[in-house]
Amino acid sequence: MELNNKAILEKANAAITEGDNEGFFSFCTDDIEWTFVCDQILCGKEQSGSIWP
C-alpha distances in angstroms, 1 versus 4, 12, 23? Predict the structure, then answer.
């Protein structure tokens, strides 16, 4: 069964809410990039994983 965009976001958000970082990152591509306004840029899953304990 293929998930639609809304279902994918709901599952990813549920994972992060439950503290399941690995589950959340399973929805991310390896080249994910987070830009924090006036702060920093994190590139890739390895750097992104550093913001959550």
Answer: 10, 17, 18
The pTM for the full model equals 0.59
Which tokens in the block code for residue 19?
């503290």
Give me the DSSP letters along 12-36. Answer: HHHHHHTT-HHHHHTTS-TT-EEE-
Task: Return the structure tokens found at 13.
Answer: 């958000």
Cα 1 from Cα 21, distance rounded (Å): 23
pLDDT (tens, 9 = 90+) of the chain, 53 residues, equals 577 999 999 999 999 899 998 999 999 999 988 776 767 777 777 666 666 65
Q: Under DSSP, is residue 50 helix (H, G, I), strand (E, B) or coil? A: helix
